[in-house]
Design goal:
heterodimer; A: about 60 residues; mainly alpha; two-stranded antiparallel sheet; globular; B: about 130 residues; flat
Chain lengths: ~60, ~130
C-alpha cells in the first residue's frame, strides 16, 4: 500500500520521532510505514487520518 | 499524552527483560552448581531444582508487560520471530535426533544443555524479523 505520510510529515516540519509520539507508536513503525514495508492496522490508519485531518483514502492508496 | 512519559515508559522494557532474563539464568546456574557440587539433603534437592521457576515467572511477567506496551509493528515482529524460532528449533531437534540414530544412539551432547540453543535461536530469528522492517 502506498502512502504520502512522509510528505505530510515534512509539510508540518515534524521528525519521525515527533509523528511517532503523536500517534503513540515507535519511530520504527513510522519509518516502516513511510518506506512501504508495513501497512498499518485500521485503528492506526484512522489515527493518522484524524491527525492530518483528512480521509484515510487521502493518505493511503492501494 | 505527555511525550516524555511515553518514551520513558517504553524505553526501559528491553532493559528490564534483559535483567529478568539474566536473573533467571543466574538462578539456574546457582541451582545447577548446588545440585552438582554440593551434597544436598533430600528436601533441598527439590528446592534447588525448582528455585529457578520463581525467577522464570518474574521473567514472564516482565515480558508480558513489555509486550502490552509494544506498538503493533513490534508485536508483529515478535510474532514473526517466535514463529521462525519455533520452526527452526523443531528442525534442529529433528536433525539432532537423526544424528543420534546415525551415531548408534549416542551423541556427545548432554540433553541437560540443549535448552541453551533456544535463546540463541530466538535472538537470531528476532534480528531477522527486525531487519525486515528497517
Amino acid at each position: 500500500m502506498r502512502n504520502d505520510l512522509r510528505e505530510r510529515r515534512a509539510q508540518r516540519d515534524w521528525s519521525q520521532g515527533d509523528l511517532a509520539e503523536k500517534l503513540g507508536v515507535s519511530r520504527q513503525t513510522i519509518n516502516a510505514l513511510e518506506t512501504g514495508k508495513y501497512s498499518p492496522s485500521l485503528e492506526l490508519a484512522f489515527k493518522i487520518a484524524r491527525l492530518f485531518k483528512v480521509l484515510i483514502e487521502d493518505v493511503f492508496q492501494p | 499524552m505527555n511525550p516524555e512519559s511515553t518514551i520513558a515508559r517504553t524505553s526501559n522494557h528491553p532493559r528490564r527483560v534483559l535483567v529478568a532474563g539474566a536473573t533467571w539464568f543466574l538462578v539456574y546456574l546457582a541451582s545447577r552448581f548446588a545440585l552438582q557440587e554440593m551434597r544436598l539433603a533430600a528436601p533441598w534437592t527439590w528446592v534447588a531444582t525448582l528455585a529457578h521457576l520463581f525467577a522464570f515467572f518474574w521473567f514472564v511477567s516482565v515480558v508480558e508487560r513489555a509486550l502490552k506496551s509494544a506498538d503493533e509493528l513490534r508485536r508483529l515482529i515478535q510474532l514473526e520471530a517466535l514463529a521462525l524460532a519455533f520452526s527452526t528449533t523443531m528442525v534442529l531437534l529433528m536433525t539432532l535426533g537423526l544424528m543420534e540414530i546415525s551415531h548408534g544412539g549416542r551423541l556427545q551432547f548432554p540433553l541437560r544443555d540443549l535448552w541453551a540453543m533456544l535463546p540463541a535461536i530466538y535472538a537470531i530469528c528476532f534480528a531477522v524479523a527486525y531487519q525486515r522492517y528497517r
